[in-house]
Amino acid sequence: MSLHTFFQWYFRTPIFLRLLLTVATFMVFFGIVIHWIEPEAFPTVFEGIWWAVITGSTVGYGDLVPETVTGKIVGILLIIAGGGLVTFYMATVSASTVKYEKDLAKGKIEYKGEQHIIFIGWNERTKQLVEMVQQFAPKEHVVLIDHTLRAIPYKQWPIHFIQGNGSEDDTLMKANIAKARAAIITSDPSMEERQADQSSILDTVAIRGLNPNIFIITEILTKEQIANAKRAGADTVIRSNDFMSTLFFHALYRKGQTDPFYTLVGQLSSQQYKQVEVPHHLVGETFLTCSLEFLKQEDLLLGLIKEGELHINPPTQTILTNADDLIVLSPLRK
């Protein structure tokens, strides 16, 4: 490696690593010098380096000390140069740590992990999702992208925050979109419905373009934009307005606080829907037989997907094939 190449590498290295390398070089240099000057007091190079580190850090055990005037002059130079350098290094590391924490809270730090979930938009739905993931899938890694937040208390929320727009390539690259396994796009509550849907569709297009294999769930508010969201690349489209309208209707006409439907909605919050393949030992069996098998695991078989079509509560004598997928309702398990 040429001197020019070394200096290029050195100045491209993060400052705290450069300082650490400089401190280490100083200690080794002074350790060799004191061993050369006073071989009797410092019989090995290691002992010389030990003395240099202890003296330069101003700890001063006193187990090894120079005995000659020349050795003492070397010690003075070490205290002046090395001590100041060590102090400067510690101050730089502390400042870098504080800056990193601030940048992390402000969403400026890139995410380096893989197989994570990306949430687009910070709102009440996203907060509840994060809490559910934390409770039932604590090993899951979540990255949040939002353009309205200026900072987020990362110690309170176990997520990695990226500040920016979910439709911009630079923001998605910071979230390591190419290595993510799923993305959930929620509607922006600050926009009117049609504008929010257009923003969600634009986010879907951008994500699909950067990661063709990612699983995308997109929230849409207006019925007219559902088809556009699917064309944009959404694997699943959720229209939250449909569910909310149903809740309002039943709340309006329910008989009392113990209305069964109202209770049902609360119960569903502790359940999860799953799409699974037909177990090998149940291929060729009836839907009824399969239902009984799943009940033994406390899972409820709701229906199946056969030849691309969804069938909820199909005839009990329907024969299952290995090409079918089952729709199962299961309790959320930690």
From TrEMBL:
UniProt cross-references to Gene3D superfamilies, sorted A to Z: 1.10.287.70, NAD(P)-binding Rossmann-like Domain
Keyword Transmembrane helix: yes
Residue ranges of every copy of the RCK N-terminal domain listed in the record: 114-238
InterPro entries xref list: K_chnl_dom (IPR013099), NAD(P)-bd_dom_sf (IPR036291), RCK_N (IPR003148), Trk_Ktr_HKT_K-transport (IPR050721)
Sorted UniProt keywords: Ion channel, Ion transport, Membrane, Transmembrane, Transmembrane helix, Transport
Membrane topology: Multi-pass membrane protein
Official protein name in the record: Potassium channel protein
Organism annotation: Pontibacillus litoralis JSM 072002
High-level lineage: Bacteria, Bacillati, Bacillota, Bacilli, Bacillales
